[in-house]
Amino acid sequence: MSILNFLSQDELDDLDEDPRLAFMQLVNIAQRSLADKVKNYDSDIESEWREIEDLRYSFMNVVLAAAKRFEIEPFLSMEVPKQSRFGNSDHLQFKADLDHYVTQLILDNSLRSKRDTVEVLPKTKEQIRAYISGLRQCVETGNMSEEKRAALLKKLDALEAELEKRRLNMMTVARFAYFVLSVPGTMWASVDITQKLTANIMQTVAEAKVEEDQAKKLPSNTIPKALSAPRANPRSLFDQEFDDEVPF
Question: Within 13 Å and on the Cβ side, how many CA atoms surround 35?
């Protein structure tokens, strides 16, 4: 089986640019996909149990291949066992170790997310919505192609939708501003008003972030810690001998 048996091409395309976060996302999707596939089989029937084993082996193969591509230790150093040596205990131990590491990645990402987002108070959100409304008027009256107009309105819709979330992603705001400011000035009815409204959005979000950081004193954006092993001096998962119990 290939990775596309566990993730769609769209899901692969949507993976984060950060390798650690992308690996976490891939594992979460692949785990759900594996669970959905396995529940269609009866583990008490030998032929179907073998299908389950094949799915689990393929899942491990995909995860370890992704870890090598994303350079995620300790999975980067692991080797895929021969299929003839792979059994139920191998899967259970691999899943337990994987859960241990992914938990650390999730916690790391939660802290990073707080650094890259900001909680915006209702009054501030209304200010930003007013600026967005002004930009809509600029787009609708601008001297541009309908395709360009539609693209800009879509960006405005996305930014307004972002305001509905509990925390506003600052990168979304930055990308939006970059997109708007990259439009040639001749396309706007008033380039000064457009740039002023865009700058107001950026400034409002920046001020909210500074205020939040000062209040909560979030730790500085340092290099992520190395993932720790679930056991002291762990041996390779497949250096161990297991007595697999087949459920039939």
Answer: 7
- pLDDT tier for residue 242 given thresholds of 50, 70 and 90: very low
CB 221 within 8 A of CB 116: no
240 is a domain residue: no
Q: Which domain holds residue 86?
A: 3-116
pLDDT in tens, 155-165: 999 899 988 88
Mean pLDDT score across all residues of the chain: 83
The answer on 92 and 139 residing in a single domain is: no
Mention every residue, 6+ apart, whose C-beta is less than 8 A from residue 118. 167, 168, 170, 205, 208, 209, 212
Look at residues 116, 131, 147 and tell me which one is the last residue of a structural domain. Answer: 116
The answer to whether 27 touches 63, Cβ cutoff 8 Å, is yes
Q: CA end-to-end span of the chain, whole Å? A: 25
Task: Among 99, 116, 133, give the residue marking a domain's end.
Answer: 116
